Every structure is written in C-alpha cells, then in structure tokens.
C-alpha cells in the first residue's frame, strides 16, 4: 500500500487534518494506494505558494531560462515514462500500450513549448498619434488552476501546463480523485529539473471541496478544465463571478463518417479505433458511426468480425485490446445507456452487457457494444456515453451526412473516410467541429490546436496559438515630445 501526500511549494506534505482517501485498481478491484484528502486550507496554501513563485525567482527569470528548465523536464519525462505509465494503468485501467505511448510522448509538449518560451513577442505599433511611441507587452495571467480528468491524466495536463509555463504562469493542479497518483509522481520531476518551488503545486481531493475552492480563489486568474460539459458549465458560471479566464475542453459525440468510395478495411479499423480504443473513454470517441447505405451491409459484417476478436483482459498485458471501465460511477452510466438504447428501439448486434475476465477480480468490464437501427434523435446518439458503445446511423448522400453529423449539441471532432479530395475538403468546411480527421482517427500533436465548437468547449490547447490562452496584452504609450498639451482634450 502506497501513500501519496500533496505537493505544495516544492515539497510533499499531508493534507490539513491528515485525512486520506483510497484509490482502486479498476482491473483488480483492489485498493492499491491512499491519497491525501485536500481541503480549502490546502488550496489556499498552494495558491499562495504559486503566487510567491510568480513574484519571486520564477517571475524574474528570463524566458530563455524558463525554456531551458522545461526542456530538462522533457528529458525527465522520457526517463521516467515507463514508471509513470505503470502508475496510470494501475489507476485508470487503460492499456499499458496506450498509456506508455502517452507518457513517452508528453515530453514533446514541454520541449516544444520550452523552445517557444523566448519567442513570445509584443509589437511596435505605428499609431496615428504624433510624438507618441506605442508598443505592446505579452505578460502571464498569473496563477492558473488546472483541473484534469481520469482518462489521460498526464497527457491532458501537458496540454495545459506546457503553454502556461512557456507564458510565465504558475499552476495549481487538481487531478481527478480517481487518478491522482501519476500527477503527484510527475510533480517530483519539477524539483529534479530545477524549477523554483511553488511553480507547480498539486492538491488532491474532490470537486466539492478542492475543485470549488480553486475555482473561487481570489488569486487564481484562470481555470483550465477538461471534463464533462455539465461540470464545465458550472465552472464557467462560477468563474464569471470574478471575471476569470477559462479554457474548457469538454465532451463530444463525434461522427465517424464513411462514404462508399472509402478504403473499407482502413475505415473499419478507424471505426474500431474511434470507439473501442481506450475502452471508449475519450472525449474524441467516434461514438456515432455514419455509414452510406450502399456499403452498410458489408461494412457492418467486417466491423462486427473485427470487434468480436478484440481481447478483453489485463491492461498490463500487451495482448489486451480492451480494458475495464475506470470508475464505478462510469461503469454504471455505461450500462444505463445500453439499457436506454434498447428501450429506444435500437438493435444491439454485438455485446450489450457486462462481462467478467479471466484473472480479474474486478467487476467493471463491459463488452464492446454496437447498436444499429439508431435514429439521430435517440439519446444514444445525442448524449456522451464515454464507454465502448457505438451507435450506427445510415445516410444517403453527403448533404444528409452533414445534417446528421452537425445535429448534436457537441462539436469536438469528426472522422471522414473517402478517396475524394474534393469531398474531404468540402466535409472539413461543413462539419461544425474543432478537429476533422480524414482517413485517420485519434491523431493529436503538440504542434496542432485542439478544442471544440458548441458545448464541446472554449479555447484551444496545443499548437502555437494555445500560448495566447495564458497571456494578456499590455499596451504602453510613451510621449517623445515634452511640450505640454491641453489637459482637457483626449490625445
């Protein structure tokens, strides 16, 4: 049994009052660690530490020096990738192949944005005012609260933290109560990399105390959140009371659209990747499969064949394709949506029930599930399930595909499978989503912006423009003439 303390001002410390809570391995169903149960007092200590760092060594450090620290951190991420991945698998039950790929990759965010740190520039503005020199400065917002989810804790933290650090901010992180361990382990790397104390702080606990206290704290300038649209709306509402900046990366109900001219084998694999990879527990899951009617029958035959062959089992085993659902509430939610779909009249052609897996004492496995006969107005097609449940909808032509694809409250991502470059370009323009993948799915990079339309969020993460989410612009006016002007007239 391991115990994880909070990480505040460069050191581990127990929570105020010494309370802890258990974290379970979703595969075994057993408690493997105790996590510090943070309080409002701990949040205040963390924010104050971040604020001191901003006013102290970190705030006076050159951008080049900040960037070098970030590059050291990138090297340490790669050095410790295997250990961090093992912790994440133990915590969230996703495949080692998936989490190992993520922890090996996160260093690239810190390396990329570390290189960008001393390339953030203001501008000299040629104004229409004679005798005035005007320029702009790009400055950090201040202390940023980061609230991260349980499905990819360190990757989704990197999307927020790397540009925030490059911009010169400090951070207080509240990871999901279900997957806090890897973030606490990662925080230790900041000390090893040589960051000043207080630049990164981690307070673990629950939304109603730690999360709420962070969002409401008077010294927090911005909240960067990944999670459900309902939680994001509550955070947005509370942040508005203090006019805090926000970045919200929320849910999705992404269409994966297959046209009759697509490479069908590649499209089948893309559909499988879109919904059954990561056990469907991703915001970008291609949970609505839109099939052109002329290919539906043969596509479905091959899709079911491949899905049936997916091996469920120990996520640490390289041969496993589908792991357990991460949390008990999410497991219950997935099963409820399967019942809802059946009640709405959809036809379950694969899976549709919980299952047990040899060697596991856990109980949170759900079979890869496929529904046909789905109408887009059904709840199974409109609401985010966040599990291995696929809704198949057919369409006649491009116009109908676009109409169905856009007819949801979400707009995070979409997939398009076609051999026509013209259709690919038309669809990329017409789909109301933040990311369009053509003949691929689930591709992300530190170089490319990510975010959603509609209820899928606000702002962008990754890519050069994401740094702007953590900066504010100051305009400076300097008179170059000493003659007195009329004080009662605007210049």
Automatic annotation (TrEMBL):
It comes from the Bacteria. Residues 16-476 form the Aldehyde dehydrogenase domain. Keywords: Oxidation, Oxidoreductase. GO terms for molecular function: oxidoreductase activity, acting on the aldehyde or oxo group of donors, NAD or NADP as acceptor. Pfam families: Aldedh. Belongs to the aldehyde dehydrogenase family. This is Aldehyde dehydrogenase. It comes from Acuticoccus mangrovi.
């Amino acid at each position: 049994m391991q115990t994880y303390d909070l990480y505040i001002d460069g050191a581990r410390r127990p929570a105020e009052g010494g309370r802890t809570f258990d974290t379970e391995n979703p595969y075994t169903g057993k408690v493997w660690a105790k996590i510090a149960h943070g309080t409002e007092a701990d949040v205040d200590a963390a924010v104050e530490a971040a604020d001191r760092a901003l006013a102290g060594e970190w705030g006076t450090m050159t951008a080049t020096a900040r960037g070098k620290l970030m590059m050291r951190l990138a090297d340490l991420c790669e050095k410790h990738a295997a250990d961090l991945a093992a912790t994440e698998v133990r915590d969230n039950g996703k495949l080692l192949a998936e989490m190992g790929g993520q922890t090996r990759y996160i260093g690239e965010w810190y390396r990329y944005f570390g290189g960008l740190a001393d390339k953030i520039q203001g501008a000299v503005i040629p104004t229409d005012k004679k005798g005035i020199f005007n320029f702009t400065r790009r400055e950090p917002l201040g202390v940023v609260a980061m609230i991260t989810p349980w499905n990819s804790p360190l990757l989704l933290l990197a999307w927020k933290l790397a540009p925030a650090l490059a911009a010169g901010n400090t951070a207080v992180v509240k990871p999901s109560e279900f997957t806090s361990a890897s973030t606490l382990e990662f925080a230790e790397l900041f000390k090893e990399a040589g960051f000043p104390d207080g630049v990164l702080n981690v307070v673990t606990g629950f939304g109603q105390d730690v999360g709420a206290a962070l969002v409401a704290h008077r010294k927090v300038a911005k909240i960067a959140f990944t999670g459900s649209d309902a939680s994001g709306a509550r955070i947005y509402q509370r942040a508005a009371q203090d006019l805090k900046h926000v970045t919200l990366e929320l849910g999705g109900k992404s269409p994966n659209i297959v046209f009759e001219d697509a490479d069908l084998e590649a499209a089948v694999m893309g559909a499988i990747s879109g919904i059954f990879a990561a056990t469907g527990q991703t915001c970008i899951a291609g949970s609505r499969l839109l099939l052109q009617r002329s290919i539906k029958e043969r596509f479905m035959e091959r899709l079911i064949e491949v899905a049936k062959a997916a091996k469920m089992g120990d996520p640490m085993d390289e041969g496993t394709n589908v792991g357990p659902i991460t949390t008990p509430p999410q497991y219950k939610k997935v099963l409820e949506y399967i019942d809802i779909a059946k009640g709405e009249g959809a036809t379950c052609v694969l899976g549709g029930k919980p299952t047990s897996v040899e060697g596991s004492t856990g109980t949170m496995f759900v079979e890869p599930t496929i529904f046909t006969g789905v109408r887009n107005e059904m709840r199974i097609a409109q609401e985010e399930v966040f599990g291995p449940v696929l809704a198949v909808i057919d369409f006649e032509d491009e116009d109908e595909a676009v109409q169905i694809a856009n007819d949801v409250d979400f707009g995070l991502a979409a997939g398009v499978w076609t051999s026509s470059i013209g259709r690919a370009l038309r669809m990329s323009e017409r789909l109301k989503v933040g990311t369009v993948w053509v003949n691929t799915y689930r591709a992300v990079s530190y170089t490319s912006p990510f975010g959603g339309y509609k209820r899928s969020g606000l702002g962008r993460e990754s890519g050069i423009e994401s740094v702007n989410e953590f900066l504010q612009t100051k305009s400076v006016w300097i008179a170059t003439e000493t003659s007195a002007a009329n004080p009662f007239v605007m210049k």
